[in-house]
Amino acid sequence: MTERKNNPAAIDDIVFLGRALERLSVLIDEQSKAVFDDMGIVIPVHSCSLMVVLAHLGAASASDLARELGRSHQLVMQKIPKLVSLGLIHHQKDDEDARRRVFHLTDKGVEQLAKFEQCRMRLHVVYEGLFAEAGDVKTLVDQMADALSVRPLGARINPDG
Asked: Is residue 97 in some structural domain?
């Protein structure tokens, strides 16, 4: 049996693109969290887009939010309890459908979103600098996602089948 250190796994291979993107995503999340902490932002990093969409809509159900975000209802519902417990959003029952909850930003949520918007402007400048240094990763990732949506990996690996 060959020792692992003499024959390391080739995990930097291109077929592990998802792993490389995940590594970048985790790094961005961790560093964004540190920036948020410094700026007094308590919105979870992965919930900022939900908060922005909710502010834009004014009031929305989880289904409305999922549709606007292009995410699953389940994923949106996983984020909502944390936002409620942080006092950033609240909900009320829909007058027309008692099973449906309608979400709104709280005053604290509006305040936190204002802080996030200040941070967002600063981060925008930072990302422009990073893109000048390393290339526009966002555009490239969006283009690859669009290309894979049109023609999935399976169709590309087996074009005849």
From this structure: yes
The count of structural domains within the chain is: 1
Write the single-letter amino acid at 156: R
Is the pLDDT higher at 28 or at 160?
Answer: 28
- The alpha helices in the chain, defined as continuous H runs, are 17-39, 48-57, 62-69, 73-85, 107-134, 137-150, 153-157
Does any domain span residue 124? yes
CATH number at residue 20: 1.10.10.10
Instruction: Specify the residue for token string 């204002």.
Output: 114
100 within some domain: yes
What is the distance, to the nearest Å, from the Cα of residue 44 to the centroid of all Cα atoms in its chain?
A: 10
| Encoded tokens for 105 | 């930003």
Structure tokens at 130: 């990073």
Write the CA distances from 8 to 2, 5, 12, 30, integer angstroms. Answer: 10, 6, 10, 27
Indicate the pTM of the whole model.
Answer: 0.82
Cα 103 to its chain centre, rounded Å, is 19
- The answer to the question of residue 34 being in a domain is yes
Q: What pLDDT does 107 receive?
A: 98
Give the structural domain span for 122: 12-148
